[in-house]
C-alpha cells in the first residue's frame, strides 16, 4: 500500500489545545482538542503536548500516512531555531523558558518546529485560508488580547530576536488606557474584549437600554462580548457605536502597518471577528481612509477563514516553509 504524506500540527491555546493531521491540500484528516489545564503547571502541559504528538504519530502510522515533522504553535514569543519559549504568555503561568523543541525532539526522535501561535495562524491563512496564494500577509487576532503575525515574500517575519509581529502593542494614543503590557494606549488597550466591555459599561452605567436590559437580565454583571454583538444585531445603538469605534481603533493601527509593509491581504481573526455586526467593515473603512492610496489600491481586508483549525494547520506547515 502506498503511503500518503501528511502534516501534524498542535496549537496550544490558553483554554484548549487543538491538534490534527492534514494533507497537502489543507484537507483535515483528523482534528481533536483537549483542555489545556494550564493551572496544573508547565511540566504537566509539556507532557500532555508530547503525548498528543505521539497520539498523532501513532494514528498516522495506523493509516499508513508519512509524517516528516511535528509543528507546534505556542502563545508568547518563541525562538524558532531552538523551539524555546522566550516571552511571557499571561494565560499559561511559568511557560516562559520552556524548551518545547528540544524536549519533544528527544522524545519523538524526529524534527519538531515551534513558533508563536499567531505566526502559525498567519501561515495557515496564507496557504489555505482567507489569504490563499498571497505572498505578503498581515494577520491580526482580536479577542482577550490582540496578536499579530506577518508574512513577507512567503516567509514569517520573526525579527532579530523572535519578537516581531506584536502589532497589538503599537501605541495609537499616548494618553490612552493602561495596557496589559504596562504601556498606555496600545491597540490592545482599546480593542481587546475586556476594553470593549469597559466602554460599554461606562455608557450603560446610568441605565441599560431596552435591548441590553433584556439580554443581560437587567444586570451589567452578565455582560459578555457575545452579548454586545447580539445587542448590535438587534439594533442597539450603543452596541453598534462601540463595535464601530473598536474597529476604527484597530484600523488606525493597521493603517500604519499597511503603510509600512504594503501587504496584499490583511486577515482579521479571533473571537471578536466572529461576532460580525460590521466590525471588519469598520476596520477596513479606517485603513482605506488613513493609509496611502498606493498601499490600499490592491489591498484586501478580510475575515479569517480557517477558524479553529488555523493554529494547528499553520503549526504543521512550519517545517515546510522554513526548512
Ligand atoms: Zn500593550
Task: Give me some keywords for this one.
41% helix; 5-stranded mixed sheet; 323 residues; 2 domains; 21% strand; alpha/beta; globular; Nucleotidyltransferase, domain 5; binds zinc ion; 12 strands
Residue share in helices? 40-55%
Q: Count the helices. How many?
A: 12
Q: In percent terms, what proportion of residues is strand?
A: 15-25%
Which CATH top level class of the largest domain fits? Alpha Beta
Heterogens: zinc ion
Mean pLDDT: 94
> How many strands in all?
12
> Which descriptor suits the 3D outline?
globular
The helix/strand order is EEEHEEEHEHEEEHHHHHEHHHEH
User: Which class do the helix and strand fractions yield?
Assistant: alpha/beta
Rg result: 20 Å
Number of domains: 2
Cα(first) to Cα(last) distance is 28 Å
Strand order of the largest sheet: 3-2-1-4-7
CATH hierarchy: architecture of the largest domain: 2-Layer Sandwich
Poorly predicted sequence stretches spanning 5 or more consecutive residues: none
* CATH 4th-level superfamily of the largest domain: ATPase, nucleotide binding domain
Could you tell me the CATH topology label of the largest domain. Nucleotidyltransferase, domain 5
Biggest β-sheet description = 5 strands, mixed
Amino acid at each position: 500500500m502506498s503511503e500518503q504524506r501528511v502534516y501534524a500540527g498542535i496549537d496550544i491555546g490558553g483554554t484548549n489545545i487543538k491538534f490534527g493531521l492534514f494533507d497537502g491540500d489543507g484537507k483535515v484528516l483528523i482534528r481533536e482538542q483537549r483542555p489545556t489545564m494550564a493551572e496544573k503547571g508547565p511540566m504537566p502541559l509539556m507532557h500532555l503536548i508530547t503525548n498528543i504528538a505521539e497520539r498523532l504519530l501513532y494514528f498516522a502510522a495506523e493509516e499508513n500516512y508519512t509524517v516528516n515533522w511535528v509543528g507546534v504553535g505556542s502563545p508568547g514569543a518563541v525562538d524558532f531555531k531552538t523551539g524555546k519559549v522566550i516571552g511571557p504568555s499571561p494565560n499559561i503561568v511559568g511557560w516562559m523558558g520552556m524548551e518545547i523543541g528540544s524536549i519533544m525532539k528527544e522524545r519523538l526522535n524526529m524534527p519538531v518546529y515551534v513558533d508563536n501561535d499567531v505566526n502559525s495562524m498567519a501561515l495557515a491563512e496564507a496557504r489555505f485560508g482567507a489569504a490563499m496564494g498571497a505572498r505578503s500577509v498581515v494577520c491580526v487576532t482580536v479577542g482577550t488580547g490582540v496578536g499579530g503575525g506577518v508574512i513577507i515574500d512567503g516567509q514569517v517575519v520573526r525579527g532579530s530576536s523572535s519578537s516581531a509581529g506584536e502589532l497589538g502593542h503599537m501605541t495609537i494614543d499616548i494618553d490612552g488606557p493602561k495596557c496589559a503590557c504596562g504601556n498606555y494606549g496600545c491597540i490592545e488597550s482599546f480593542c481587546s474584549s475586556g476594553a470593549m466591555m469597559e466602554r460599554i459599561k461606562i455608557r450603560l452605567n446610568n441605565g441599560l437600554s431596552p435591548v441590553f436590559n433584556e439580554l443581560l437580565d437587567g444586570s451589567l454583571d452578565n455582560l459578555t462580548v457575545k452579548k454586545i454583538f447580539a445587542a448590535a444585531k438587534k439594533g442597539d445603538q450603543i452596541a453598534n457605536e462601540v463595535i464601530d469605534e473598536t474597529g476604527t481603533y484597530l484600523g488606525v493601527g493597521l493603517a500604519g502597518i499597511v503603510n509600512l509593509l504594503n501587504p496584499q491581504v490583511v486577515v482579521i481573526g479571533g473571537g471578536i471577528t466572529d461576532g460580525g455586526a460590521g466590525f471588519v467593515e469598520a476596520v477596513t473603512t479606517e485603513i482605506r481612509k488613513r493609509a496611502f492610496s498606493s498601499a490600499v489600491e490592491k489591498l484586501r481586508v478580510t475575515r479569517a477563514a480557517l477558524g479553529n483549525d488555523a493554529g494547528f494547520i499553520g503549526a504543521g506547515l512550519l517545517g515546510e516553509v522554513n526548512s
